[in-house]
Automatic annotation (TrEMBL):
Domain CBS per the UniProt entry, residue ranges: 1-57, 81-141
Identification of the protein by name: CBS domain-containing protein
Listed Pfam families: CBS
Keyword Repeat: yes
InterPro entries: AMPK_gamma/SDS23_families, CBS_dom, CBS_dom_sf
Family annotation (CDD domains): CBS_pair_SF
Signal peptide: none
Alphabetically ordered keywords of this record: CBS domain, Repeat
Alphabetical list of PROSITE patterns matching this protein: CBS
């Protein structure tokens, strides 16, 4: 599982997500990689839209970012902390994972062991792909077919205009 440490810079966390083409990372602490939070690529909007919170964002750690972010959220319970990320046990059923993801506006649930060490992640995309099977190259073939139809339509339209 790709993780970031709570004392890493937030800009490094966003770079990690970009480099790995993922939408979120668990935030961990210590040698046991204990889960302490989560950062999503969507959270970058707070760096852009709330410069008052992050005047020194180039030196801001992930934990400082999460704490500042938590202070602005209505559901933080007044403690200034972001809600803990969704978790499940390694033996959780698919039904309970779907219920958990559906109960909050999130795209991932972290799989943790008894010590809260991150051992996996299940994304909304993983759940959907359990129910939908796309043969290899399906999307590419579909898009190529759609493009051909559009090109054919464009050719037919220009033939009519030229006549």
């Amino acid at each position: 599982v790709i993780t970031v440490n709570s004392d890493d810079l937030i800009l490094e966390a966003f770079k990690c997500m970009k480099d790995n083409k993922i939408g979120g990372v668990p935030v961990v602490e210590g040698p046991r990689r204990k889960l302490v939070g989560s950062v999503s690529i969507r959270d970058i909007r707070f760096l852009l839209l709330r410069p008052d919170l992050f005047s020194d964002f180039r030196h801001l750690t992930v934990l400082e970012f999460m704490n500042a972010l938590g202070s602005t959220l209505p559901d933080s319970g007044g403690n200034g902390l972001v809600k803990p990320p969704l978790t499940c046990a390694p033996d959780a059923s698919m039904g309970s994972v779907i219920d958990s993801i559906g109960s909050r506006i999130t795209h991932r649930i972290y799989v943790v062991d008894g010590d809260f060490e991150v051992v996996g992640v299940v994304t909304l995309r993983d759940v959907i792909s359990c129910f939908i099977h796309e043969p290899p190259g399906f999307c590419d073939s579909y898009l190529a077919s759609a493009m051909e139809k559009l090109e054919d339509k464009g050719d037919a339209d220009s033939s009519v205009e030229n006549s």
